[in-house]
Design a protein that fits this description.
Blueprint: E1 6-10, H1 15-25, E2 30-37, E3 41-42, H2 45-54, E4 59-63, H3 66-73, H4 86-104, E5 108-110, H5 124-134, E6 140-141, H6 153-156, H7 174-182, E7 194-195, H8 200-213, H9 218-224, E8 228-232, E9 235-239, H10 243-256, E10 260-263, E11 271-274, H11 279-291, E12 301-306, E13 312-317, H12 322-328
Parallel strand pairs: 1-2, 1-5, 2-4, 5-6
Antiparallel strand pairs: 3-7, 8-9, 9-11, 10-11, 10-12, 12-13
Helix pairs in contact: 4-5
Amino acid sequence: MSEKPKALVLLSGGLDSLLATRIILDHNVEVEAVHFVIPFCRCDCRAMNKIAKELNLKVHSVFLGQEFLDIVANPKHGYGSQMNPCLDCRILMLKKAKEIADKIGAKFLVTGEVLDERPFSQRMKAMRLIEKEAGLEGRILRPLSAKLLPPTEPEKMGWVDKERLFAIRGRRRIPQIELAAKLGIKDYPNPSGGCLLTDPVFARKVREHLKHEGKLTLEDAILLTIGRHFRIDGTKVVVGRNENENNRLLAIAGRRQIPYLKVKDYSGPITLIVGKEKPSVIEKAAAITVRYSDAPKNVPVSVLYYNAKGEEREIKATSMRNEEVDKLRI
C-alpha cells in the first residue's frame, strides 16, 4: 500500500487500552485515539494528557452527557452488577467512535478489551452483539485477545500481523502486567478506578434517585457525586462532607435556586433541600446539619435557613441522633 492504513484507538487511560495502543503503534499503521468522558467516570485528565504526549498521539476527547444518562435511566440491555449499563454504554461509545473514524479516514478501531475479563460486556457473545449494534462488525481489533477471536478486517487485509498480537483471557491481570514490563510501561493506573456506577454505595444513590424522579439530568448527575444523601418525607437532602463539597453545593444552590442550611457560629456542612420546602423537612434537615457540624450535640443551636429566593431565616435545632440519621440515609 502507498499509504499507511489509519486506526482509531479507544483510549481510556487504563492499562489494557494503553497496552493495545502501544501494540498497534508498533505496526505500520497511522494511529489516532479517542477518549470518552462520562459524568460518573473517575477520570484523570492530566494522566490522559501525559499519555498523549508520551506517545505523540492525537487524542479526540468526547463528553457523553445526557445521551449517556438516558441510557443509565433505561438501558436496552440491562445493568451489570450494580447500575452499570455496560453493553449500552459500549455501543454508544463505539457509535461515536465510528463517526470520528469516518471523519478522519480510519479503516478500523482498536480497543483494550480482554476476552472474559468483564463478565457482562467482554464475553464473546456480548462483544459480537456490541459490534453488530454499533455497525462495526469485523472492524474492531482487540490486540490483547486477538488470537482467541475471529479474524478482523485489519488482520485479513494484512494491516496488522496476527503473530504479534496476543491471546490473553480472563480476569487475572498478571499477563497484562508482565506485558507492560516487556514494553517498558511502568506508570499506569490502578485497576480499581473506573466507573462509579459499579460502586454499590453510589449505585444505591442512583437507583434511589431514579425510583423517585424517573429521570437523570446532568445537574442530577453532578449532585449525586457530592455529599451525604438523605430522603426526608419524600424530599432529597444533600449534606456536604468537606470545604470543597460545601463550595460546590453553594454554587449549585445559587445556580438552581435551591434552599440550603448552615449552622450559625460553628463550622459545619452546607445542606441542600432538593425538593419541597416542607416544615418537617426543614426541621429534620437542620437537625442533620447540626449533627455533622462542630456545634454542641445536646443543646439547641442556631441554624441559618436560606429559601429558594435567598432570604435568610434563623431557626433552632438540636443534633439528630445517629440511629435517626441512619434511617434517613440513602
